[in-house]
Amino acid sequence: MNTTAKLLSRAACIAALALAPAPLALAQEESEFPPTSAAIVKAAPDSAWQEIPAEDLLVMTLAPDSSGNPRRVVIQLIDAPISEKWVANIRTMARAHWWDGLSIYRSVDNWVVQWGDGEEDEGDRTRPARPLPDGIVPTAEEDYTIAWQPGLTGTLWGADGRRAAEAAVNPRQDKMAAKGPDFSDPYAEAFGYLRGLPIAAELQNHVVTDGTGMSNRPAKVWPVHCYASVGVARDLSPDAGTGAELYAVIGHAPRALDRNIAVVGKVIDGIEHMSILPRGTAAFGVYETEAEHTPIISVRLASELPDTERPRFRFLDTESESFAAYADRTANRYDPFYRVPAGGADVCNVRVPLREIED
Amino acid sequence: MNTTAKLLSRAACIAALALAPAPLALAQEESEFPPTSAAIVKAAPDSAWQEIPAEDLLVMTLAPDSSGNPRRVVIQLIDAPISEKWVANIRTMARAHWWDGLSIYRSVDNWVVQWGDGEEDEGDRTRPARPLPDGIVPTAEEDYTIAWQPGLTGTLWGADGRRAAEAAVNPRQDKMAAKGPDFSDPYAEAFGYLRGLPIAAELQNHVVTDGTGMSNRPAKVWPVHCYASVGVARDLSPDAGTGAELYAVIGHAPRALDRNIAVVGKVIDGIEHMSILPRGTAAFGVYETEAEHTPIISVRLASELPDTERPRFRFLDTESESFAAYADRTANRYDPFYRVPAGGADVCNVRVPLREIED
How far is it, in rounded angstroms, from Cα B88 to Cα B262? Predict the structure, then answer.
């Protein structure tokens, strides 16, 4: 997920590695440059790393690959109130072991890999053939976006005054608007991160409480589609899906899907087990034969796994100063490889740093 | 490349197909909606489709896959003067059959797949072990961007006045700026398409010749990295690569690479033969063993292939009214699936429509 690999030719890769751990010559050269985004992440204090609660981690075990290697995919579920009803359904289905024995049945290049019940295509059924467990919550299109709530904290960036979120929500707004990188977004008035996952926002003017004038604050927010985002497949409007059929993005962020479908989280480990699957050749990228499906052994909440099998991850607090510095540098890389700072970044290229906690 | 597959659950996929060729009920429902982007492309006149010259197509034949299926990758080379020196080198190397017998030796998830000479890692060599053919042109970082030239035609969109390109270059600018979709770009002042491939631009103010005031026109332009873009791997600055080592993007557009590395074209057919390759597990995503490499049988310019083996493609003229309408609709999808138009789009999500010409 958070690769820092660069487009070095192979010789340079090896040369760069051969130089580690940094003889004097390299150290001198590096001093000409500001800290890289990787260095900023490395220097972040322990307090800036937040552990993802075990009930927010979904652990999907696929059948071993053709060489017998295990395949584990870990999904971080998004926090309430965003996509709350779908996430509740997903927890209910995981506890009921609903996905066990089902499969990945669809793969479309530069689009998505999709899993659930591949046997839902008979007659006019628009639900999976396998009965859903009790307690599934009805969902509706209105819940694709939520009203901003006072208790909700997060970081939002707008590229200019028109798009700025209020300072209380976004302590870095002034710097960004005045002289910082361009974080504009053609898909939303502002974007940001809510406890490690990307969101976008619609803003509204309001009177600043200290009487200094008008400002903007978020009115509505919604989760956005980035590479590895997980969403809820559905039928045509007004169906909004239950969470039984899920997909992961394996290409350029399909942002037009934002507010049209529920994003429920992000694959934080093992996305490559999905992205390298052969593409389906039947309509809509569904596999033509059952033999092409990838069997799902199990899907569990990490909180239901024994301690020894429970993965643990921390993300760099997206409200921390370390994250702000990391985002700034990501938008303006300047080092022995990058000589022209981009001057900006989109929400999906500011990838939230993650660390697996090894016991 | 230009999939229109949507995130329907499988039942809906089948249902949608079952409805084709559109009984009356569907036709009536469709009338509530504006033409889809697919319908706009379908309705484009023949005059809006431009054939890609055979000397701009690079045909890469990989070894058959493990099931014996052939793997062909077709790359559209970008037109001069953009990245002109690297493209000249690539043509020279293709004519010399330089890549034949080499391999894909690197694959990094959500980043790139890279090919060329995997044996360049000995000692301090920063060039491939295999000697390059005669006639390779020296390249330099300055050539990552080019000055806008009067003879150069293309379409550029800026999101607002500050970013607008002049009307002569962009006849759709006024509409876009006033009430059209948001085509802003955090990475550049404007973006557009030059004969089918995406570019970005830096603008400058100038006096409009009719005396009505100041306007903007492009000053510099450069090719941008999107999904499937092909670029030239290189060593650390100031090395700019020759074109011998190439990569294709297989993830979210790595736009920070723009102006830092030469983009030379785009995979227009067969990207899935690259994107599904297992990821490399050695440093920088290089494969650990030779056995993991994907052998390259041959790389040829289409113009050097016999007629019967020569692929032919047309793209939807990016300066046509059909393309403008397609881009508008792509930024504002509204149909039985998409109920909230995005209101904007980024350069990489307005995928240039392509058609293979079957003999």
Answer: 13
Written out in words, the top-level CATH class of the domain with range A51-121+227-305 is mainly beta
Q: Topology of domain B52-117+225-309, per CATH?
A: Cyclophilin (2.40.100)
* Cβ count within 10 A of residue B227: 25
Encoded tokens for B206? 């100038």
Task: Give how far A196 is from chain B: nearest CA, Å.
Answer: 18
The H or E element containing residue B16 is helix B10-19
Integer CA distances (angstroms), B253 to A252, A347, B134, in order: 6, 12, 34
Residue in chain A closest to B125 (alpha carbons) equals A11
Taking only the tens place, the pLDDT of each residue in B201-246 is 887 765 555 555 555 667 889 999 999 999 999 989 999 999 999 9
Contacts of B159 in chain A (CB under 8 A): 184, 186
Q: Which residue has the tokens 């020759």?
A: B242
User: What are the structural domain ranges in chain A?
Assistant: 51-121+227-305, 146-223
B10/A127 CB distance under 8 A: no
Burial A19-29 (b: 16+ CB within 10 A, else e): eeeeeeeeeee
Alpha carbon B64 to its chain centroid, in Å, reads: 25
Mean pLDDT score, A137-161: 75
> What are all long-range contacts of B54-58, with beta carbons under 8 Å and residues at least 24 apart?
B54/B301, B54/B302, B54/B303, B54/B310, B54/B312, B55/B91, B55/B301, B55/B302, B55/B303, B56/B265, B57/B301, B57/B302, B57/B303, B57/B311, B57/B313, B58/B90, B58/B94, B58/B265, B58/B299, B58/B300, B58/B301, B58/B302
Pick A10's closest partner by Cβ from B13, B120, B271: B120
Which CA distances in Å does B58 have to A36, B54, B64, B93, B102?
Answer: 36, 8, 18, 11, 16
Residue entry with tokens 């552990």: A51
A141 touches chain B (CB under 8 A): yes
Q: What is the ipTM of this complex?
A: 0.88
Residue A64's closest CA among A230, A276, A308, A296? A296
CA distance A223 to chain B (A): 13
Q: Name every chain B residue with its beta carbon within 8 A of the beta carbon of A114.
A: 7, 10
- The residue written with tokens 């926002």 in the block is A201
Asked if B12 has any chain A CB less than 8 Å from its own CB, the reply is yes
Q: What's the pLDDT tens digit per position in B58-109?
A: 999 999 999 999 999 999 999 999 999 999 999 999 999 999 999 999 999 9
Query: Which residue in B124, B261, B339 is closest to A141 by CB distance?
Result: B339
B26 touches chain A (CB under 8 A): no
Helix, strand, coil percentages, rounded to 5, for chain B: 25, 25, 50
Pairing state of beta strands A354-356 and B246-249? unpaired
- pLDDT the model gives residue A216: 62
In sequence order, what E strands does chain B have?
49-51, 57-62, 71-77, 103-107, 112-116, 146-147, 155-157, 190-194, 197-207, 214-223, 229-232, 246-249, 263-269, 294-301, 313-316, 354-356
Residue B116 distance to chain A (closest CA, Å): 9
Distance from CA of A107 to the nearest CA of B (A): 10
Peptide bond into A238 cis (omega under 30): yes
Chain B residues in contact with A120 (beta carbon < 8 A): 9-11
Interface membership of A105 toward B (CB under 8 Å): yes
